[in-house]
Amino acid sequence: METVLITGANGFVGFYLTRHLLRKDYRVVATGQGANRLPYAQANFECHTMDFTNPSDVAEVFRATQPAIVVHGGALTKPDDCALNPDAAVTVNVEGTRNMLLAAAGVNAYFLYLSTDFVFAGNQDTYAENDRPQPVNFYGETKAAAEQLVQQYAGTWAIARPILLYGVPQTGKQNILTMVASALKEGRMLKLFTDQQRLPTYIEDFTWGLEQMIAKQAAGIYHFCGTDALSPFDMGIRVAHYLGYDKSLIATATAADFHQPAARPPRTMFRLEKVIKEFGYRPTSFAEGMRKTLEGWKR
């Protein structure tokens, strides 16, 4: 039974990836700074408190668990927070990744890094895995810098980039669909961007893809996303229609209408030929993913 160590395990991806891997009989070592929020009690699941910005913490957990596979998903992921706290963003997203790579090298582990579409500027129609990163905000800069460190790893490494993950929240953090649903249910007005487009990714598609990468020890960079190009406004209107809420509560907005510390790429679309060819990836349609995400709201 191979041991997989996951950072950021209490988060959205961590919950679903842990569930996928436990079903495949991996030993999963979930790590995070706070108390364990995952509901698993299987014999092949354990959790450890670990601050990956602290090399001593990391070394201690690696000595105790001896992982064969490391999935580094822990990060500061809010672009505005990274812009306002650049030192913290570098410490967590760059230096934390360096610490994880050094520890992984000590046990010759397969290293899988979870990145983001925000490494790109969003100024071209689609992006392939070998396109050059050009981030437009500091969050993207730190993730691109961490990717560079990963690509220097002496062992087998891989990078997975998703676009705008959504699905049923499991450990407290909301996503765009559930935030819109909550606001509309309470009768609150929303302003949603029309000038940003994404290919939103259903969470279980992404964690299925990560499981495939782990099983095959896939090396290199991989893109994951859906196939429906939507703006936040488009998504909001679809949520309102599906749940029967008042669409007039949703107003249009553009990035120029808000003062945000961090810019956002206007359009991120990934090419999927690589993951389709290597893994047989078949993304869930947005309509089906939305239904799975929000079906509990109809009860």
Give me some keywords for this one.
single chain, about 300 residues, alpha/beta, Rossmann fold, UDP-galactose 4-epimerase, domain 1, 7-stranded parallel β-sheet, 10 helices, about 15% strand
Overall description:
With 299 residues, this protein is α/β, with parallel strands linked by helices. The chain has 2 domains: 3-165 and 201-224, Rossmann fold, CATH 3.40.50; 167-197 and 228-269 and 284-294, UDP-galactose 4-epimerase, domain 1, CATH 3.90.25.10. It contains 10 helices and 13 strands. The chain has helices spanning 12-23, 55-65, 79-84, 86-106, 138-150, 176-185, 203-216, 232-243, 273-279, 286-294, and strands at residues 3-7, 27-32, 45-49, 69-72, 110-114, 157-162, 165-166, 190-193, 197-198, 201-202, 220-224, 250-253, 267-268. The strands form 4 sheets. The protein has a 7-stranded parallel β-sheet with strand order 3-2-1-4-5-6-11, sandwiched between helices. Strands 7-10 form a two-stranded parallel sheet. Helix 5 (138-150) links the parallel strand 5 and strand 6. Helix 1 crosses helix 7 (203-216) and helix 6 (176-185) crosses helix 8 (232-243). The mean pLDDT is 96. InterPro entries: NAD(P)-bd_dom_sf, RmlD-like-bd. This is dTDP-4-dehydrorhamnose reductase.
